[in-house]
Amino acid sequence: KLKKENDRGVICVMFTTLMSSSDHLKRLAQENTLRALSTLKPDVHTIVFTNDKHWVKYARALGVEVETRILTNKYGTPYLHGMFKRAFRHRAKFYGYTNGDILYGENLITSLHVIAKEIDEKRLHERILITGRRLEHKLSHKDYISQNPYEANEKILQFSKLAVSNIFYFFLTLQKTVP
Question: What is the pTM of this model?
């Protein structure tokens, strides 16, 4: 377990997209994700790409960076390359996209530091892509994550199962890997 240290620097810039939804549980999942990501500072810098007024206000209240200028295709899907270019304005070892309803805890930070060390010691190549699946949890209104997302994650994990095996829900890479 790594101790949070302000002088260690940002290990990862994580970015996501959030869209408006009338589904209260989907909104709760996205709120939980933003709260959890916001607690990973200073190790993880989060950028939310959204034009939705609710999400802009919510993310900024948590101290999460918001980008409202989003390049999209004709169907409204944001271009990943543009989001990576925006993330590259920040200095970090890793950069990555995550779905807006994935919970992370300090194990993400620990894992990234271990991988970074392996890269620095030339045991892993610098051109690396880290992908991941998620555990599914049937969300209910009682699953609100308050001040300690790590404890909440542990409780939620107890009742979760592996999601669809052929879909990746997040991926991280080094700047050198992205053309």
Answer: 0.80
